Amino acid sequence: MHTEAHLSELGEFLRVRRAQLSPRTVGLPESGAPRRVPGLRREEVAHLVGISTRAYARLEQGRTPVPRTVLDMLARVLHLDDAQRDHLFELSAKGTCAPRRRPAQKVHPQLRRIMDELSTTPALVLGRHLDILSWSPLAAALLTDFDKLPANRRNYARLMFTDPAFRELCLDWRTNARICVTHLRLEAARYPGDPKLAALVGELSVADADFRQWWAGRQMNGLWMGTKRLHHPIVGDLTLDWDTLTCTADPTQKLVVATADPGTPSHDGLLFLASWTADSNRPAQDAAA
Length: 289
Fold this sequence. Notes:
Helices cover 46% and strands 12% of the residues.
């Protein structure tokens, strides 16, 4: 049952996070005596949360659902950031229904209209599993020619971990790759048993040792905005600010855009690429096109 799998993964998440904290971190006195386990003891977490040690042990053993009030306290006691807190709540969900294969996504018409206006901005629409649903001509010139990729290869995480040119392009590859892993983990918690996501995770686990290690870990650093440093073969090094807009009609679709401060070398580089792609006079492309 998917409920048991959820609770088991929740228990593992709690154990790993507990091991990462010290008594001093949560305001407990340290006796100085050697500790048999790293981090906090079960009884210490249970005391801070306000439940019995036995009840907390059952949580870590995946033997019982977690009430909302206890989840709130756990998030505070374990010093979870926003991404970790979201992951905790997703893992506690009671996914008892058998997973269903969801239909292929198409970019939402409103996002598509926005994309058509972004002639001088690199932009992508990412869907479930970080599938690339649509891209602007400048995004293709900056990252890779998505139109030349087979449809089943148009996935941001797959490119990040299996495409050597994509890896060479990203100067902060490890940071960006770990963000991909976090978003996939959050989606796996939200949709347990999704066959397409399971296949993607299996593929990347076989293909890349870093992915295997990070998927097995519990560090959460998912972001939907930040800075990327790229080394482009034509315009050289670029530092771009990126941000994300979530589609209200379909929250699984996100418009990701990259910009640079006007007057900077990075901005000039984007303008050069935009003029270069303008010669082709191509509109934004969709994965289904």
